[in-house]
Every structure is written in C-alpha cells, then in structure tokens.
Amino acid sequence: MSPLSRRWPLLLLVSAVAAYISPTPEPPGAVLYDRSWPYPASGGDSWPPNPWGRRLWRRAAGAGAAPRPAYRGAVGQPHWMPPQFLQGADAERGLQRVLSRQRRKHGRPQRWNIARLCEERGECTCYSQKTRATYCCDCEWGSCFPGQAGVALEGGQLRRMDRLAAGDRVLTVTSGGELTPTTVLGFLDRRPQATGEYLHLQLASGHQLRLSANHVTFTRSGGGVYASQVQPGDELLVAAANSTSYSPVVSVQYSIMKGAFVPLTEHGTLLVDGVWASNYASFPHALSHALTTPFRLWPALLSERFVVADKNVLVDGLKRLGRLTLGAYSGGVLRLVSP
Predict the structure, then answer these.
(1) 100 φ, ψ to 5°?
(2) What is the pLDDT of residues 224-240, one digit of tens each?
(3) CA-to-CA separations, 256 to 126, 145, 146, 185, 229, in angstroms, rounded
(4) Do 113 and 229 reside in the same domain of the chain?
(5) Residue pair 158/172 in contact by the 8 Å Cβ criterion
(6) Are residues 31 and 155 in the same domain?
(7) Containing domain of residue 96, as a range?
(8) Beta bridge partner(s), residue 166
(9) φ, ψ of residue 148 in degrees (nearest 5)
(10) Strand blocks (E) in the chain
(11) Model confidence over 269-327: pLDDT tens digits?
(12) pLDDT digits 0-9 by tens, 181-225
C-alpha cells in the first residue's frame, strides 16, 4: 500500500476541519437563512443551537431580479418554516384541522397536543365543563362578546361585533325602557383571534344572546346579574321594531366561539343580538361604570397607542386592581388545565 493511500483519511479529516472553521463569505445580493426555527433569536444566537455553526447563503438571480431559493422553500422564505397553522390568520383554522385529525384517529383530541399548540401561541389550555372541549384561552383575560354577535346600529341594521369600530352609533335602552342611540367610544378589550366559551341564551321571542358567563346582563327581577346566573324563566329586555319588551329565557346552551370584544359606549350599555346588555364583565355594572369614567371622558385612552399584545395596558391595570381589592367573578364554567 502506498504512503498516500495510508494518509488520505488524515488529509480528508484535516480538509473537513478547515472547511468547518473557515468563515463563509457573504456573496453580493445574498439573503441569510437560519435553521433556528422555531426559536429564532437576534444577534446570531439561537436555541436549540445550530450544530454546524454555518450560515447558509443563496445568491440573487441578478440585479433587480427576484432571488432564486437555494432549497425547497418558497421565494423569499427559508427552507425551515413554521407550519401554516401557527401563522397569522390561519392559526385558528389550522388548529381545528389538527383537532379534526386527532378525532378521526383517536376518537377525541389528545390534550397534550393541544397544550403544546397553546404553548406555541403563548396561551393557556382551558377545559370547558359544559361542552367538554379543550381549547386555547388567554391566561389572564376572559371573553365577553364573540365576533359573531350582532350589534344594533342607530338605523336599525345589525353589524357583527368584530366589524364594529369607534365612532359607530348603536342603540341602547334608557332607564325608562326607551330606545336611544349611543356612541361607541372604543374597546376595553378587542382580541379577534381569541377563543372562549360563550353562553347562548335562547329567548321565547326568538332572540339569542351570546356572551360569556362572567358578562353582566339585565333581568326583570334581579337587575344586573352575571350571565351564568341567568336561569330558564328569567326575563330579559329585548328590542322589537321601535319598542322594547321583556321575554323569558327558554334554554341556555354553551359553545366555543372565536373573538373577544368589549365595546365601551357613552351609556355603558348596548343592544347585542337584540337584547339589552352591559359593557362590563367580572365586576358589578354600577362599579364598573364608575371606574371607567376616565375612559368615557377621554376616549383617547382606548386608542392603539396604549395597546400591547392586543391588550390595553390601562384597562389591564384597572382589572388587576379590581381583582386584588374585590376579586373577579369568573362564572365557574372554566377550569385551567395548564399555564
């Protein structure tokens, strides 16, 4: 055996080490790729770390032309991309696809998989004792009105809650039982992608009020009560044509729905699904109406400049103060599974 043939493994090893520790040059018009998903980090650090420590480049097709991908990823995207069900508006739809596959395979969704998905979205895992469903929910804030709830405008039309905006004129009811217009000043809570458990209060008049268990509504006998305290036979104030009347509750059902919205009006009340309801949840109506006086006097406090991660920091501080001093009413229908 020749000396060269005996040394080629050593030469190959030296060449590989030299290629590994040598810096990768940055070609002109290149785009940086990183294998650090799902934990991208700035400054070159990532976890889990890239075991090869190499930066992968691709060269642009030419000046002014779209770069060609070096891997199977789409143009302008790295090869390792997060799944579509964890991205933006497709997150909820993708989550339902995952749960559907689990139901077909296992007969029921696997809770540990749901918990992992909720953790990826930065949310908690909640279990509904009424619907026996496990879903992703906010760790601190509850839900109030779903996005599909209808709000009566001044002209009599209905507008979905998720399409309502500050400045809209909606209908409410005065203390004398008369319809009157009021202005939406802003939103105490507006989370279109949130998921929560909602009650469906079916009335004899055909109206169906959809709201969370801890939201305040008004009955004929008890005044302002939480929705979870409403029982069949209780009468709620509904609007029909240009008049109002009381209609008894026929049944109470539960479902998991998308969206969490809390509009704030000048009167503190509004017509939702044709039924008179409060703007507030978790605390008594009169107390909440008094504490939100600064927001009605200066609606700019509800603008986007005070919103961080879909939550108004001023409203969040007010809620935390109320929980510390009074304790919030949750309705007792949700059980937190994991943080």
Answers:
(1) -65, -40
(2) 899 989 999 999 999 98
(3) 11, 12, 9, 28, 19
(4) no
(5) no
(6) no
(7) 86-137
(8) none
(9) -85, -10
(10) 31-33, 56-58, 124-128, 133-137, 150-152, 158-160, 169-173, 179-203, 208-211, 215-219, 223-226, 235-240, 243-265, 269-272, 275-281, 307-308, 311-312, 334-338
(11) 999 999 999 999 888 899 899 999 999 999 999 998 898 888 899 998 888 888 887 76
(12) 999 999 999 999 888 889 999 999 999 999 998 899 999 987 889
CATH code, 198: 2.170.16.10
Q: Residue holding tokens 């007969």?
A: 107
CA-CA distance, 152 to 156, in Å (whole number)?
Answer: 6
37 Cβ neighbours under 8 A, 6+ residues apart: 78, 80, 81, 82
Helix axes 91-106, 111-120, angle to 10 degrees: 170
Q: DSSP character for 287? A: H
Instruction: Write down the pLDDT at residue 134.
Output: 83
Rounded to 10 degrees, the C-alpha dihedral 79/85/90/95 comes to 180
Please determine, for residue 47, whether its predicted confidence score (pLDDT) is greater than 60: no
Cis peptide before 192 (omega within 30 of 0): no
Tell the residue number behind the tokens 């953790």, with chain if given: 119
Higher pLDDT, 164 or 127: 164
Q: Which two three-digit tokens encode residue 103?
A: 């139901």
Confidence (pTM): 0.63
Angle at the Cα of 270 from the Cα atoms of 255 and 264, rounded to 5 degrees: 90
Torsion, CA 104, CA 105, CA 111, CA 114, rounded to 10: -70
166 plus 285 within the same structural domain: yes
Element (H, E) at 313: helix 313-325
Q: How far apart are CA 169 and CA 176, in angstroms?
A: 20
